[in-house]
Design a protein that fits this description.
This protein is of the alpha+beta class. The protein has 19 helices and 21 strands. The strands form 5 sheets. It has a 7-stranded mixed β-sheet with strand order 5-4-8-2-1-11-13, with no helix packed on it. A 5-stranded mixed β-sheet has the order 15-16-17-19-18. Strand 18 and strand 19 form a beta hairpin. Bound molecules: ligand BES and zinc ion.
Length: 626
């Protein structure tokens, strides 16, 4: 109890020092001195003890759903402190050795979101600290799948999702985006399964189930990743490839055939890809997000496998993080837009090179619509609508909104439009190059932009309204908007349908997924079940294999009480674990009492199939306390 109190007090001290000493935060949130950013989401003291390297040796007990093993940290006690503090979350610590000798450690009680600080006595010249541990049942980074939850339904599967602060639930570490280290790992899995990490990876299974990994480029803990299962590999070209379960590998390889060309396009834009190979693993359907930019190996949802390559811009996004995020990393989760906003901008530039401007304009417009919806939902003056966030004492995942992604990307687009594309591209390439393998705060970025791009041009500075974008709420008036060439045509077809034209007579032949999304998104709220049926008879939307269209269609079906789609919707909800799809559907069902009953029935059947974080989210939507 006393320990917890002390810890809370020291946390408060950290926060206070964040405001007063380190960054001198002014009233408007703007920092006027650029200093080391204090990360409020790690309990570690990695600002005093350098975490240089990790040697991980773990066994993955896939049948008992537990990881056991030891993490050996090579450290440099630069501040000569007496204690090393590491982040843990629901870990059982078996023993700790400092330079080969066992020591007494203390483990604090759990603080919501943060976990438990592990205190280890060290000396001024301590070189290594070994922590032997096991993971707990509520490890938020881990999703353990039974065979029936996988695509092939034959063998169990495990994957991790460490961003934002979940690495600490499977590795005792200093878990902040500004703390980088290199690693090796020895991972023992049941024979017949393969292990992959965010590192140099095997391309085939071996006989003994022991896999060795090396990552000799320093990365932060949120990029630690592991996948274990019956996994096959297909090459795309000599530096890109695809992993998936054997029954999925052919489809996955076909869908992602352009990945190699995407890496080429990205390099032409902003300089060399610095991570060696670029591979993608297409995970089982329970993966809770669309994609995760684990270095060298993007983790992706199978919901992008649409059969027509129409959803692979998600790969462009995760690939772009190899520059914005993995190479130049947000210093704290308050600077999250520097990871995601830059990546969305970069992703769309890759897509424009691959598929042209009118196509990419559709992505910009859908993103803009998402942003408008987000701002309306939060309220136009909400603090979380600033680009620079304040997540003090909160779950960093609260920052995971379209503000970071779409407002961030539109701010960069505005700068591009004002300085010209060539100048902006040169600036960005130089930014990535000069900050490679470093962390960046919002303040540091703005200062850099001032010297390297604005260069005293007062007129330009005025046009960019930087303060309004970064330290102000809502959508600024100078927000750019994409041209509506293709969506204009879609609007016309929708109008035709709504004024009574038969669905078969609509001109939809050349439509991509994104035209369909716009067509459906802008349908009026009072679309009737009879109108839904007409669309369904003409386009068979209930049985679409495209997850983006399916999700939206089922939302409309619930709204219109179009029962014919419910069977397919049930099936969709049985396996798909992507939060972006689950949330709107469950939310829509909760709007009526019949719908709520349906939501509860469906959720009772499939809750076990969802990731712990998705479960937490739907529990909230359904108002269920667990
Ligand atoms: N890095 C994010 C995922 C993330 C962010 C996970 C913060 C946890 C906390 C990833 O790059 C991402 O943005 N994924 C998107 C896809 C993208 C195309 C917008 C997703 O999963 O929806
Ligand atoms: Zn991203």
């Amino acid at each position: 109890m006393l320990r917890k109190l002390c810890l809370l007090l020291s946390l408060a001290a950290i926060c206070a020092c964040n405001n007063n000493k380190q960054t001198k935060t002014a009233k408007n949130g703007k920092s006027d001195t650029v200093a080391v950013a204090k990360d409020i989401h790690t309990l570690s003291n990695a600002d005093q003890v350098e975490m240089k390297h990790l040697d991980l040796d773990i066994q993955v007990d896939i049948y008992n759903k537990q990881i056991r093993g030891c993490a050996v940290w090579t450290i440099n006690n630069k501040a000569k402190v007496k204690t090393l503090i590491l982040d843990t979350y629901d870990l059982t610590i078996d023993h700790v050795m400092v330079d080969g000798n066992e020591v007494q450690f203390t483990l604090d009680s759990l603080i919501k979101f943060f976990g438990s600080a592990l205190h280890i006595p060290i000396k001024a010249n301590t070189a290594t600290v070994m922590v032997c541990y096991k993971t707990g049942k509520s490890a938020r980074a881990l999703q353990w799948l039974n065979p029936q939850q996988t695509h092939d339904k034959r063998t169990p599967f495990l994957f991790t999702q460490s961003e934002s602060i979940y690495a600490r639930s499977w590795i005792p570490c200093a878990d902040g985006p500004g703390i980088r280290f290199t690693y090796t790992a020895k991972v023992t899995v049941p024979k017949g399964l393969m292990a992959l990490m965010s590192a140099e990876n095997p391309q085939a299974k071996n006989d003994n189930g022991v896999y060795n990994f090396t990552m000799d480029t320093p990365i932060p803990a949120y990029l630690m990743a592991l996948a274990v299962g019956d996994i096959a590999f297909r090459e795309i070209d000599d530096r890109t490839g695809v992993y998936a379960e054997p029954g999925m590998i052919e489809k996955a390889a076909w869908e992602l055939a352009d990945a190699g060309r995407m890496v080429d396009a990205a390099e032409q834009l902003y300089g060399p890809y610095r991570w060696g190979r670029y591979d993608v693993i297409v995970l089982p359907p329970g993966f809770p997000i669309g994609g995760m930019e684990n270095p060298k190996l993007t983790f992706a949802t199978p919901t992008i496998i649409a059969g027509d390559r129409s959803l692979v811009n998600l790969i462009a996004h995760e690939l772009a993080h190899s520059w914005s995020g993995n190479l130049v990393t947000n210093a704290t989760w308050n600077d999250f837009w520097l990871n995601e906003g830059f990546t969305v901008y970069f992703e769309r530039r890759i897509t424009e090179r691959m598929l042209g401007k009118t196509y990419t304009d559709m992505l910009w417009e859908l993103g803009y619509q998402d942003l408008v919806t987000e701002v309306n939902e939060m309220g136009p003056t909400h603090r979380d609508t600033w680009l620079k966030l304040d997540l003090t004492g909160r779950d960093p995942d609260d920052g995971l909104t379209d503000i970071a992604y779409e407002k961030g990307a539109l701010f960069l687009r505005l700068i591009e439009l004002n300085v010209g594309r060539d100048t902006f591209d040169r600036f960005l390439a130089q930014y990535f190059n000069e900050h490679a393998f470093k962390t960046i705060t919002t303040e540091k970025f703005l200062k850099y932009m001032d010297t390297a791009l604005i260069k005293g041009d007062a007129d330009l500075r005025k046009k960019l309204t930087i303060n309004e974008w970064v330290y102000g709420p809502g959508i600024p008036a100078n927000c750019p908007r994409a041209e509506q060439e293709r969506f204009g045509k879609v609007d016309a077809e929708r109008m035709k349908f709504l004024s009574g034209a038969p669905a078969e007579q609509l001109t939809t032949v050349d439509w991509t997924t994104h035209e369909w999304l716009h067509f459906l998104r802008k349908m009026p709220d009072n679309l009737s079940a009879a109108q839904m049926k007409k669309l369904d008879d003409a386009f068979n939307l209930t049985n679409t294999g495209n997850s983006e269209i399916a999700d939206l269609w089922y939302v409309l079906a619930v709204r219109a009480n179009y029962a014919k789609a419910y069977g397919a919707m049930d099936n969709f909800l049985s396996s798909v674990g992507r939060r972006k799809f689950l949330e709107p559907l469950y939310r829509e069902m909760m709007k009526t009492s019949n719908g709520a009953a349906m939501a509860r029935r469906i959720y009772a059947k499939y809750r076990k199939n969802y990731h712990p974080l998705a479960q937490e989210m739907i529990d909230r939507v359904l108002g269920e306390k667990r």
